[in-house]
C-alpha cells in the first residue's frame, strides 16, 4: 500500500477508484454487447462504438501515477471478471488508437484507478467520471456489471461536481433541404433530465430555445452533435437525408 497522499489527491483518487472491497462485482458471466462513448480532455470525443465484452485481463502501468508519488501501477495484468464498464473500455482500447495508452494503477488495496485514456490524463482536480444509461455510477468501472444494450460513458471531468450530459434527439431521416426539429436534453448525476436552452447543434439555424428545440436543414446525410458550455457533448446522431443504405452511416 502506498504512503498517504494529500487530501486533494485523495479526493480525486476516491472518485476514480473502484471499491472492490466494498461492492461485489455483479457483472454477467457472459459476453454482452454495449455501447461505449469516451470523452477526453476539453470535451474531445475519443470514441463512440458498440462492441462486445466479457472477462478481461487488464495490464496496469507504472506511469499511472496521477494520484501522487508511489501510486503508479505494478505493470502486471489484473483479471476483471464478467462484463464490466472498465472491461468495455479496455476491450475498445485494443482496437482504438485514440484510447491508448490506457493508464491503470493497481497500487491500492481496494481496487483499480484510472489515470489516463490516450492523451487525456488526470491532473489537478480532474477525474474520470462514469455514467451508465445516463446515470452516474455508484461504484467504479470494474465493479459495474453490464447488461446487453447498456450505454456507457467515460468522461474526463475537469472537477467535482460533475458536468451534466447532453443528449440529442433527432429523426433518423429527413428530406434534403427541408428543415426539421431536434431537441437537446441534459441529464444530471441521478439521470434526471431537463431541456437545454442555448445549446449549439451541428447545422442548426440557431441555438436551442427554452424548450430545448431548434431546426436543422441538411443537403446530405450527416452526423449531428449538441454542445453547451462545459456540459458533456452529446453522442453523434446520424440523420439520413435522402436515400440511404445500411452502409451509409459512418
Give a written overview of the molecule.
By secondary structure, the chain is mainly beta. The protein is 8% helix and 36% strand. The chain has two helices and 19 strands. A five-stranded mixed sheet has the order 2-1-10-8-9. Strands 11, 13, 14 and 16 form a four-stranded antiparallel sheet that branches. A three-stranded antiparallel sheet has the order 5-6-7, with no helix packed on it. The longest helix is centred in the first third of the chain and has 10 residues. The N terminus is likely disordered.
How is this structure best summarized?
This protein has 250 residues and is mainly β. 8% of the residues lie in helices and 36% in strands.
The computed structural class is mainly beta
If you compute it from the alpha carbons, what radius of gyration comes out, rounded to the nearest whole angstrom? 19 Å
Task: Average the pLDDT over all residues and give the rounded result.
Answer: 88
Order of helices and strands: HEEEEHEEEEEEEEEEEEEEE
Distance between the termini: 46 Å
Q: What global shape is seen?
A: elongated
Roughly what fraction of the amino acids lie in strands?
35-45%
Question: What structural keywords apply?
Answer:
250 residues; mainly beta; 4-stranded antiparallel β-sheet; 2 helices; 19 strands; elongated; disordered N terminus
Amino acid at each position: 500500500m502506498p504512503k498517504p497522499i494529500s487530501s486533494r489527491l485523495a479526493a480525486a483518487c476516491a472518485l476514480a477508484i473502484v471499491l472492490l472491497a466494498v461492492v461485489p462485482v455483479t457483472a454477467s458471466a457472459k459476453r454482452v454487447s454495449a455501447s461505449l462513448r469516451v470523452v477526453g480532455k476539453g470535451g474531445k470525443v475519443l470514441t463512440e462504438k458498440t462492441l462486445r465484452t466479457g472477462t478481461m485481463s487488464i495490464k496496469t502501468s507504472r506511469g499511472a501515477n496521477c494520484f501522487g508519488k508511489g501510486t503508479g501501477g505494478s505493470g502486471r495484468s489484473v483479471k476483471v471478471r464478467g462484463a464490466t464498464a472498465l472491461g468495455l473500455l479496455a476491450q475498445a482500447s485494443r482496437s482504438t488508437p485514440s484510447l491508448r495508452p490506457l493508464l491503470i494503477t493497481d497500487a491500492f488495496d481496494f481496487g483499480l484507478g484510472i489515470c489516463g485514456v490516450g492523451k487525456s490524463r488526470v491532473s489537478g482536480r480532474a477525474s474520470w467520471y462514469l455514467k451508465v444509461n445516463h446515470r452516474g455510477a455508484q461504484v467504479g468501472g470494474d465493479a459495474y456489471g453490464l447488461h446487453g444494450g447498456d450505454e456507457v460513458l467515460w468522461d474526463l471531468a475537469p472537477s467535482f461536481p460533475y458536468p451534466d450530459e447532453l443528449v440529442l434527439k433527432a429523426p433518423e431521416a429527413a428530406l434534403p433541404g427541408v428543415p426539421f426539429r431536434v431537441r437537446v436534453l441534459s441529464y444530471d448525476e441521478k439521470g434526471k433530465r431537463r431541456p437545454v436552452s442555448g445549446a449549439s447543434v451541428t447545422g442548426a439555424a440557431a441555438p436551442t430555445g427554452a424548450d430545448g428545440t431548434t431546426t436543422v436543414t441538411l443537403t446530405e446525410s450527416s452526423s449531428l452533435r449538441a454542445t453547451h458550455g462545459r456540459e458533456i457533448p452529446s453522442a453523434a446522431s446520424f440523420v439520413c437525408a435522402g436515400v440511404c443504405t445500411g452502409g451509409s452511416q459512418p
